[in-house]
C-alpha cells in the first residue's frame, strides 16, 4: 500500500462447517415404500441369526453364520470353505453389477431406500422426532436455553439412540458367532475379548454414524455419489424438478387466482420450501440434478401434498429422465425403455456369473487335496540308491462322516508312498492309507521314494491320487519329483 499499511490476507475456509439438518416428517407413496423396506431389512438383519438349521453332530446349528474360527461360511444349506473364497468374490461382483443396474434404472435408489446408513439414520431421526418433536419444534429446542425439560428430552433421545446402537451391535456380531450363546455371554459378562470388543465397536460406530454424522457420511466418506454419474444415461430415472411447469416460482397469496398468477409469468411452484425441509441430506432439487441427492423421493411426496392442497396435478417433482424431459419439450410422447444396451449387459453379466457359481457349487467335489513339496532338501539319496522326496499333504473332508482313503503316486515306475504316523508307514508300498475327520482338513507328512532309473531327469511329473474307500470319490494333484538328473 502507498501509505505503508499492512494488508491483511483474506481467510479461506477449506471446510464448510456442518449445518445441522432437521428433516421434516412427510407422508406419501415413497415414504410408505421406505417404511416397508426398512422393516423388511430390519427383520432380515435381526431375525436371521436366530434361525436354526440342523447340519448334523458337531456342526453349528445357526442358519446364517460367518464363522471365522473354523473358518466356514454357513448360509442355510450352503457351506463355503476358506479355499472357496472365489464364491465370495463372485457374490461381490454380482452385488456390484446389481448396484450398477439399479443406478442405470433409477439413479441412487439404493442409497435412498436400502443403504444401511440411510435405514439406520431414518430410525435415529424417528427416535429424535419422538422425543423432540417435528422439524420446527426441534429447531426451536436447539436454540432454546438449557432447562430441565430440554435436558430430559435430549437425554431421552440419546438413551433411545444408545439402546438401538446396542441392539445393532449385537446384531452384527451375532452373524459371526452363535447368537443365543452370545446373548447369554454378554448378559453374564462372560463374552470373549474379541466378541465384546467387536460388539462395542459396532455399537459405538452405529451411534456415531447414524446419530451424529448422518448425511456427512454420504458427503465425505461414501465414494458412490461420485461414481454413480458414470452409471447413468439419458433414460435413467432420477428425482427431478419440472422447471417448465414450476418456474418462475414464487409465493402465492390466498386471494390470488392461478390465472392471475400465470399471467404474471409465475409457474406452479409456490416456493414453499417443503421439498428442502423434508430432504434428509438438505438438497434443493429445484436447482437441478445433484450428486448428493439420494433419490429417496421424499421431496416428491412433499410437493405432491402441496399440489393437492392447491388443486393442481401432482408430479411437479417426480422420478423422470433427461430423455423424457427433452422429448416432452418437443411436444412428443416419451416411452420409457427398460431394455437398453447397458441394462442388457449388466443383466447378462449377473445371470452368467450367478449361473456359473451355482453350477460350480452344485458340482463341487466333496473331497479336495493340496500338496506342497519340501524345498529343503530338494531330495535325499538313500543308501540303496533310491531317491526320496518329502511332501506336505492336506486333504479336506467336506462331509459330516469319518473318511478313509488310499493314496498313490502315479507317473513314476516303482514309486513307493509312505505316510508318517500311519500304521503302514514302514511297509513301503505303492499305496498308503490315510483318514480324515468330519468337516476338517487333515495334514500328513508324505515320503515318495523312487528307483534311480525311474527318475533320470532332474524333474519328473508325479500325480498324487486319493480315493475314498467308501464311495469311490477321487481327487488328484499334480506335482514334481526332483532327482540329481543325468550327468
Major sheet attributes: 5 strands, antiparallel
User: What class, by secondary structure content?
Assistant: alpha+beta
The first-to-last residue Cα distance is 91 Å
Number of helices: 16
Q: Any low-confidence stretches, pLDDT <50, length ≥5? A: none
What radius of gyration results from the CA coordinates? 33 Å
Beta-strand level of the residues, as a percent range?
15-25%
Q: What form results from the Cα inertia axes? A: elongated
Q: Give the number of DSSP strands.
A: 14
Strand and helix order: HEEEHHHHHHHHHEHHHHEHHEEEEEEEEE
- On the 0-100 scale, what is the average pLDDT? 89
State the helical fraction: 40-55%
Task: Kindly list the characteristics that best describe this protein.
487 residues, alpha+beta, five-stranded antiparallel sheet, 14 strands, 40% helix, Electron_Trans/Redox, Cytochrome c oxidase accessory protein CcoG, membrane, 4Fe-4S, transmembrane helix
Q: What features would you describe in this structure?
A:
The chain crosses the membrane at residues 36-53, 85-106, 159-176, 196-213, 344-363. InterPro entries: 4Fe4S_Fe-S-bd (IPR017896), 4Fe4S_Fe_S_CS (IPR017900), Cyt_c_oxidase_cbb3_FixG (IPR014116), Electron_Trans/Redox (IPR051684), FixG_C (IPR032879), Helical_ferredxn (IPR009051), Ig-like_fold (IPR013783). This is Cytochrome c oxidase accessory protein CcoG. Residues 260-289 form the 4Fe-4S ferredoxin-type domain. This protein has 487 residues and is of the alpha+beta class. The protein has helices at 29-47, 85-106, 109-113, 116-132, 135-143, 148-174, 179-187, 193-213, 215-221, 224-227, 243-246, 258-263, 274-277, 298-309, 322-329, 341-362, and strands at 64-67, 72-75, 78-80, 238-241, 317-320, 367-373, 380-381, 387-397, 403-410, 416-419, 431-436, 440-450, 459-468, 474-482. The strands form 4 sheets. Strands 6, 7, 8, 10 and 12 form a 5-stranded antiparallel beta sheet that branches. Strands 11-9-13-14 form a 4-stranded antiparallel beta sheet, with no helix packed on it.
